[in-house]
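We treat protein structure as text, and this decision shapes the records that our systems exchange. Because each token names a local backbone shape, the row as a whole describes the fold. An entry from our holdings is shown next, in its original layout:
>
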Amino acid sequence: MFNKALWIKEWKQNGLLWLMPILAFFGVTSTRLSYVMDSENSKLMNLKMFQEQGADSFYLATNNTYGTIIMLVVFLCWLGVNQIGAERKNLMNDFTFSLPYKRWEIYLNKFTVGFVTLAASLVIATIIDMAIVLFSPFGMFFSPSIHIYEAVVCLSILTAFYSSLLLVGTMTGGSSMQLLLTIIFNLFPVLFAGLVLYFVEVNFGAENFLPNMDFGNMFMMLYSTPFLMYLGHIYPEFSVIPVILYSVVCLGLGTFLYNRSKLENNGKMLLFAKLETIFHFGVTICFALLGGMFAVVVSEETILHYYIGFIIFGLLAFFGFNYIKKVRFKG
């Protein structure tokens, strides 16, 4: 989706986009560059070691995909919040919605600006990284396919995170809630799985309830976000297909909700009343489960303590959410 006027607006509104290629460069190349710039003795020792262990060991030792993802996730948090949440805070979206463009065009342009900048940054950084390896003493280990694989993994994971960040922005009324709920949204599956597993263990006994099933991996595979799938090494080899589908779903839902967002709800925790009902139920259940776990861990006692904590935390969450959903946040 390209619209020159909307692209110019996004670039001016997000003036630090030029930092993304720099961050991508440091993330992708830093480890291998440090090996190349090491002392001659260290390089000879590493070269001998990698020759003995094989070419794959070189790429395994110098891989910085984790670091690249974490670094760019932080930057994408700023970008996505600035594109959606901050617009609500400073009422810039009043101006944006007054432009002669449909809302879906505006939303897709926001996503495309971020995605294209991210993709271009990773491509440039990967080409430089390939050159660093190829023209170094470690050039004998050079494998273009590994460089491309690392770039594809980074791009797919970061695109999924970015699309979920924008999606949450279409639901929330301000930047602080957008950032907070995005973090919860991306970590929730594994945390919720832990709470449910503890509930099962307390009430039924883990050894008696489907004893042959690996609950941890089952819950992670079924419910994790792509970011957690990758960091947790759930699959022996990472597959981009589920992550691409995740991005497409988030983008589609985000476009749908952005079309229907109401300006009069700016500043509220959530923009849609139906979502408030779902979140109210979910928050109450999660805090109740957390309360039960907390009570048993602290008291080291029986199932009775679990349900005391379950009820107390559940009630606190229920009435607390009732209050918070009426508050208008300034951030």
Q: What stands out?
A: The CA atoms of residues 18 and 306 lie 52 Å apart. DSSP finds 15 helices and no strands in the chain. The chain has one domain: 4-271.
